[in-house]
Structures are given as C-alpha cells and as structure tokens.
Amino acid sequence: MSDTLADTFTVGWTAMADGTREDYEQLATIFADHARETLVPHLLSVMRLLEGPTLGYQIDRARHCRQSATRALRNGESDEFVVAALLHDIGDVLAPDNHSGVAAAILAPYVSEETEWVVRHHGLFQGYYYFHHLGGDRHARERYAESPHYDRCVDFCASYDENCFDPDYDDLPMEEFVPLLHEVFSQPPQYTA
C-alpha cells in the first residue's frame, strides 16, 4: 500500500505565520481529501445522536428528520432539498438554541442560497405553529415577508416539518439517503463571505 500525502507530509513550523505557499497548497490538498472521505460519515454519526429520547413527541428527532426527507423525496423535491430536509434539525444536539443556524452553516457551501435560507430560518418560521401557546408571537416570521425565500420557507414548515411527527408514517431508513448525502456533499464547495 502506498503512502498518502497525509502520511508523508508534515509542516516544519508551529506558527501559521511561518508557513509557505507550498506548505499551504499541501495542507489544502490533505484537508480536502480528508473532508471528502469523512464528511458524510461524520454527518451520519451526528444524526445518530438524534435517536433515542422522544422528548414528549411520539417519535424521536432522527425519525422526524427522516420523515421530513421522505416526504420531500416522495414529493419530487430536488436532491439538495431532500438532504436539507434530512439535516434540518442536525444542530439540535450541538446548538439547541441555534439549531437552524448550525444546520444552515453545514449545508451552505453545497446548496443554493434558497435552500440555505430556508434551513436557516425554519426554526423561527416553525414557531407559527406553537409560539402563541408559549406567550410568543406566532407571526414573528412576518419580519421576513419581503424575502424572495419567504414562501418556500412557509411551505417547508407546512409540508416537511410541522407534520413530520407521525409514528404511523412509513419513513425511509437512513441508508436510503446516504447516496443523496454523498451526491450533495461531493459538489465543489461554494464559499461565500
């Protein structure tokens, strides 16, 4: 078995300011190869953390996400939108008070602006269904009414989020979504400032 660049290359410095162009070109290649090989398995590991407690709902958060993605797939949504539906609550385990932002940040380099926007704002938009029961403003999403993505986010919440807590729905297993995850996350990242 031949050695890979990651096995044979190590920088000779301990402060990034001392690196050379050649160092950073090598490091970028090593990191890109590593990310390409491990991103989907890492995402699947985090999704498994959503399994288990139902937290008062009839299904756990992992199944909620699969149900969301299954509905999107069966409704003919794009591959990136199905993946977004699958991952929309992945941030629950890492940042429960900003789960939408975490999920959007994961997806942003690989999906359209619209899909990223929908995931970033779905938590607030989902509040339409329950904020008023907790003394909040169910119409808080209206502050984004002028966004070109407003209607898409309203539809996402109505079609693929608020209705995805059904223990009798025949959602697909996670394995069915793995090829879509690989497809979306193998796209060249589009970094934005």
Rg over C-alpha atoms, rounded to the nearest angstrom: 19 Å
Q: pLDDT average, as an integer?
A: 95
Which CATH architecture?
Answer: Orthogonal Bundle
| Low-pLDDT ranges | none
CATH class: Mainly Alpha
Question: Main beta sheet: strand number and arrangement?
Answer: none
Number of strands: 0
**Based on CA inertia axes, which overall geometry fits?**
globular
Under CATH, the topology is which? Answer: Hypothetical protein af1432
- Following the backbone from N to C, one meets helices and strands in this order, namely HHHHHHHH
How many structural domains? 1
Summing up helix and strand content along with how strands pair, one would put the structural category as mainly alpha
* Helical segment count: 8
Distance between the termini: 40 Å
- Beta content: under 5%
Give the full name of the CATH homologous superfamily: Hypothetical protein af1432
**Helix residue percentage:** 40-55%
